[in-house]
Amino acid sequence: MKVIAFNGSPRRGGNTELLLAETLRGARERGAEVTTYRLDSMNLKACLNCGHCDKAGRCIIKDDMQAVHDEIRVADRLIVASPIFFFSVSAQTKIMIDRSQTFWAEKYVHKKPISPGPFGRKGLLLLVGGMKRNEKNAGFECSEATVRAFFRTVNVQEHVTLSYDQVDEKGAIVKHPSALHDAYEAGKALVSV
Ligand SMILES: Cc1cc2nc3c(=O)[nH]c(=O)nc-3n(C[C@H](O)[C@H](O)[C@H](O)COP(=O)(O)O)c2cc1C
Fold it and tell me: Do strands 88-89 and 77-85 pair parallel, antiparallel, or not at all (unpaired)?
């Protein structure tokens, strides 16, 4: 089973990365083939809203997203992992998501949705934020809405979300009572059929 994972955090060894690593450890243990994209290290331009994908069914911007588009087409499982930045996903994550507008055009304009493949397509969303959820922190809700729209656009029909608040300092996620174990179990469950 082919899994692709997007790490949307710019912080090396940060909470998103640690959480994602546990998820991928679980998925690999169950035999999954995993490709991880560290979005901050990639050459990714923001969507231009140029309309090319509406007309031609492909994105016109020639950067690292072209290869990601090909991988998204054939993945069985997709994982998005992001810190909460200003009540939403990180800019790196959002750029990747906006560039998936080409899949929206394929699905709704050209009526060619991505094939569900042999296992169906499932997703996992991992979110980490520093604030308390009850401090009017809409970050998790905003991020959920954004990533849900992305998942449905790329024909991921169901997904699970793990979200952790009050995780701020670099590496603080390791002190959380359940997060790393939850992530590991979620990785195993994601690739189980
Ligand atoms: C630019 C910026 C904006 C942030 N905005 C929020 C926010 O709106 N809500 C929140 O809960 N945490 C916010 N945080 C805290 C991060 O989500 C938190 O430090 C998280 O653990 C970072 O994950 P990482 O270690 O994977 O980068 C912000 C951090 C930065 C750097």
Answer: antiparallel
pLDDT tens track for 136-174? 779 999 999 999 999 999 999 999 999 999 999 999 999
Q: Which atom of ligand 1 is nearest to the CA of 14?
A: 25
Residue 58 CB coordination number (10 Å) = 13
Q: What is the pTM of this model?
A: 0.97
Which residues line ligand 1 at a C-beta cut-off of 6 Å?
A: 9, 11, 14-16, 83-87, 128-131, 137, 139, 167-168, 170
Neighbours of 175 (CB within 10 A): 10
Q: Which two tokens stand for residue 147?
A: 């990533």
What distances in angstroms separate CA 139 from CA 61, 64, 132, 133, 180, one per listed residue?
A: 30, 28, 10, 8, 21
